[in-house]
Amino acid sequence: MKRHFLIAFLLFFVTAPVLNAQDDLQRYLPEDQLHWLTDGDAARFLVLKKEYLQAFESGQMTLIPDWHYHPLQSFYVSYLYNVAPDFGWTTWALTPPDNTIRTDNLQTPATSTHFPQQADDSVFEPLVAALENRIALLQDETLSRPGFAVWVVEGITADITLRLLEKTPSMMPDALVIVNAYIPQYHFNKALSERIAKSPLPILDIRTAESNHWLDAQWTLRKKLATKYQHVSYRQRKLLSSGNSGQKELRSTVKGWLEFHGY
Q1: Secondary structure letter of residue 155 according to DSSP
Q2: pTM of this prediction?
Q3: Segment 198-243, tens digit of pLDDT
Q4: What residue ranges define each of the domains in the chain, with the CATH number in brackets?
Q5: C-alpha to C-alpha distance for 76 and 181, rounded to whole angstroms
Q6: Are strands 234-238 and 203-207 parallel, antiparallel or unpaired?
Q7: Which end of the chain is least crowded, N or C, by CB within 10 Å?
């Protein structure tokens, strides 16, 4: 009896932080923006939702912040989530899975080189699978709604998302916006540039004034690779402003790009 009680006690504290984090988040939002997704294992995920505010609905915009963040912690994702309904989009903001990603998980220990060998690609499999599960649940809600499907993904999440779309092309949206996309390992970060350039999707690649050195190191190469692989729907945009001005620049950049493509 004591053993069973101990197991139940430990399971509660293993799962409680994830549930509490989501439950805490819902306290700061109006009830009409809260949307819960439940999978077959009875796990639930909180998605934020804002309805379009134009006469016609342009489509569904799914926003996922950098890994290890929830949407309201992201300066740019949270802003776009709030303003995109003003130009016709219903926005859905999804929290990435809880799997940990660190540089030391992605490479062998560095001893005598600045370019240590990367880990096997299989290290990404549980991350891709976890993200796929969440997006699949969300697509059950969004695919029946009118308009186009656009994803906005940030930071490390952009790399995991592109890996997911390579694995499961049937999940592809109509277009992809990536914000400060990077992966914190030299070889994988370079491979991300190849992955972007070879994607069949229209891609808007945004670099903000707050971008990190991982993105800075690959920015020029991405454009060259897009030319090499004839990715005619790839566009780079570097935001010149930071802070609130950077947010407004992001809004006009994304809105203009979507309109240019007819979305």
Answers
A1: T
A2: 0.87
A3: 999 999 999 999 999 999 999 999 999 999 999 999 999 999 999 9
A4: 32-99+117-260 (3.40.50.1820)
A5: 13
A6: parallel
A7: N
